[in-house]
Write a structure and sequence with these properties.
alpha+beta, Nucleotidyltransferase, domain 5, Actin, Chain A, domain 4, five-stranded mixed β-sheet, 12 helices, 18 strands, 26% strand
Amino acid sequence: MATFRRNLAIDLGTASVLVYVRGKGVVLNEPSVVAMDTFTNQVLAVGSDAKKMLGRTPGNVMAKRPMRDGVIADFQATEQMIRYFMHKAVGRSFITPDLIICVPSQISQVQRRAVLQASKQAGANKTYLIEEPLAAAIGAGVDIADPRGSMVIDIGGGTTDVAVIALGGLVVSESIKTAGDELDDAIAEYIRKHYQMMIGERTAEELKIRIGRALPEEDEEFMEVKGRNLINGLPVKETVSSNEMAEAMKKPLKEIIDTVHRVLEKTPPELAADLYDRGAILTGGGSMITGLSEAIRERIGIDVTLTENPITSVVRGTGKALQWIDMLKANETKTFGAQRKLFEEQQALRRR
C-alpha cells in the first residue's frame, strides 16, 4: 500500500501556502486565508476565494489568517486549511499522504507539536518537519552537505530566517518576526501619518509589490492609492512615490539587515572566509523588493544574490526532501527496534 502513497511538501507560510507533489512540482500557491461562519463554525472559503473577503465580510463571516509570525495562531482554522489544500492537491483517496512541512528555524517544541497535531487531524498519515533555511538552501541549488559554509536569508510573510549552513545542518541561525507583514504594516502607518488616510492590508501589500524600494532612487515611480480619510471619513485618492515607500520601510528593513549582521558576527572564522568567497543567497517573497540585495551588500560587505524564483524556493527545497521520507521511516523503525530491545533487556534484568 505504501508504494501508492502520495507524498506532499507544504510551505505553510503566514502569507501563502505552497504545495509540491513529487513528480509534478509546485501544484498550488494560494494565500493562507480561511473564511469561517462564526455562528456555525463552518468553513466557507479557503485560499484565493477567502482572501477576496478580507476586510469585506458581514458580521457573521470572519476572514482571517490562521498563521501568524510563521506559527499556528488558530489551530482549528489551520487544520481546515491543511485538509483543504491536501485534498485539492491529490484528490480524495483511501491512502492518506505523508507530508513534509517547513517551519521557522527557532520555533519552540510546543509550536512544532501544534503543526504535527494539526497535520494529523487534517488526515495526513505521517508528518515530518524541516527548517525553512535548510529547505530554502536546497531549493536554491546549494549542496547543504558541503563542508564549506553557505548563508541563506529567507524573508517570508511572518518571519525572516537567516542561517549559515554547513555539513547538512544549521551552524548559526536566527529567526525574527520582522518580514513581509511588518513591511505592509509600516507602509499603512506611513500613509496614515503623512496623508491622514487609512488603507487596508491588500492595498499596502500592492504598494510594496508594485513600487516598494529598499533604497531611494532618482527615477521615481508613482501609484494611486485609494482609502478612507481619517478626518472626515470619506473615500479619498492620493498619489504615492517609490521613494516614499523606501522611507516607509526603512525601519523594518534595518531590523532584517541588523539580523544578517548579527549572524555573521557569530559565524566561526573558517565559515566566514567561505562566505566572503561565496556570498549570501536571498530567498522568499519579501526578498523581491527592489534594491534589497544592494542594501544588504552595502552593510555586510559580501555579495548577496537573489535566487531564481524566490517565492517557491522553500517549497521546492522541501519537495526535494521528499526523497528522504523512506530514509526517515527506516531510521524511525530502527530507533523503535532499538528501544524495544532495550526495554526487553531491562525486563529480563528485573526478572532475575
